[in-house]
Specification:
This protein is α/β, with parallel strands linked by helices. It contains twelve helices and twelve strands. The longest helix is centred in the N-terminal third of the chain and has 21 residues. The structure holds NADP nicotinamide-adenine-dinucleotide phosphate.
Length: 344
């Protein structure tokens, strides 16, 4: 019989639901290949209610209820708590998955939710960059004290194995810097503008396919990219860095004329994220740059992302994630879960 592990989800939006679908899809494989069974005992949302069932919620029913716009409360076998801190203390689970919206400035309320879960004896897995940049050291330390894990593979480059790569496969290596394209939305917008759309037309298209938010400033002004740079520097280079400390320029200043001029010269504009040590300390930057075909960034199209790492033992190691989405982010959460269980 597979060993049953109880999970709770804080957040049930794009990523939370994609994770629920992945658990349903992978259940037979997890049981046969790893002897693992994952039962979701609780889900809480912002405005779609909450549900707890210590025996396990019916995930298909939860997805249906959410889709019809109803509250999850109808699925609960206990009085569902209305906010996340009480929910965590009430829900019987070994793992808490935190998938609520990012707060780039303070990382809240996710930071507090994660502290509560670790204090309550749960391993924590998040896709949220906020608590990584604003609480990496404190949360990792708290997890260690509790004999638990705080994992966040999906926080940068969705399901691509970035943080786990530096745990085991790259043991003994030191990260000196990196350069990449880490924001899908701006990469898509720049590509559309290269193809002749105006900035507004590109934004409208991005909104129509759900890539661009109603208020696009988080992406367009480089905040999402900056928080990813801060997360990589903090967790992989061991230097605590906030998004506000990243030298940040977005893509608002890039005009169709500039894109056309670059194209004539055989180059492309990309929103480049980078960090490297310099004699004056760490330089972390998000800025639009012209890149030529000799750069690996040149061929990164659409919503794909790429990061090239410079290590003391490997001068250039690149990872490309082709067309990510909530499903790939969900895989990052599953990979963290299985890594905590140390399944082989
Ligand atoms: N989308 C991606 O592909 C992707 C990729 C990498 C990382 N991420 C990160 O993953 C996280 C989730 O992204 P998403 O796209 O799933 O966001 P989303 O669709 O906006 O979903 C957020 C979920 O959190 C719930 N929520 C909001 N405030 C809450 C609170 N105080 N307590 C409990 N639940 C709360 C929302 O409730 P309602 O359902 O009632 O609105 C919703 O269910 C974000 O931090 C994001 O940066 C996303």
């Amino acid at each position: 019989m597979p060993k049953v592990h109880r999970l709770c989800l804080v957040g049930f939006g794009n990523v939370g639901q994609a994770f629920a679908r992945l658990l349903l899809k992978k259940a037979p494989e997890l049981a046969v290949r790893y002897g693992v069974s994952a039962t979701v005992t609780g889900i809480i949302t912002g405005s779609h209610g909450a549900a707890i069932n210590p025996e396990g919620l019916n995930l298909e029913a939860a997805l249906d209820v959410y889709e019809t716009g109803k509250k999850l409360d109808a699925l609960s076998t206990v009085d569902p708590p209305e906010e996340a801190q009480t929910f965590i203390r009430t829900c019987p689970a070994e793992f808490m998955f935190e998938v609520t919206p990012v707060d780039p400035h303070r990382g809240q309320p996710a930071l507090q939710t994660i502290k509560t879960a670790l204090s309550a004896g749960m391993h924590v897995i998040t896709a949220n960059k906020g608590p990584v940049v604003h609480g990496y050291q404190a949360l990792t330390e708290l997890a260690k004290q509790q004999g638990l894990r705080f994992m966040f593979e999906s926080a940068v480059m969705d399901g691509a194995p970035i943080f786990s790569l530096f745990r085991q496969p790259l043991v003994g290596a030191n990260l000196l810097g990196f350069e990449g394209i880490l924001n899908s939305c701006t990469n898509l917008l720049l590509g559309l503008m290269e193809a002749g759309k105006t900035f507004e037309e590109a934004l409208d298209y991005g909104r129509s396919i759900g890539i661009t938010e109603t208020d696009p400033s988080n992406d367009v002004d480089g905040w999402d990219a900056a928080i990813k740079v801060a997360a990589l520097v903090t967790a992989l280079m061991g230097i605590p860095l906030t998004p506000q400390e990243v030298d940040r320029t977005g893509i608002r200043g890039i005009t169709p004329e500039m894109l056309a001029e670059a194209k004539l010269a055989g180059e492309r504009w990309k929103l480049v994220c980078s960090a490297e040590h310099s004699p004056n300390g760490l330089v972390a930057r998000v800025s639009p740059q012209r890149v030529g075909p000799e750069s690996p960034l040149y061929a990164v199209n659409g919503t794909s992302s790429y990061c090239q790492f410079k290590l003391d033992v490997l001068p250039g190691l690149g990872i490309l994630e082709y067309n990510p989405g909530p499903e790939t982010t969900a895989y990052g959460l599953l990979a963290d879960f299985l890594n905590i269980l140390e399944v082989q």
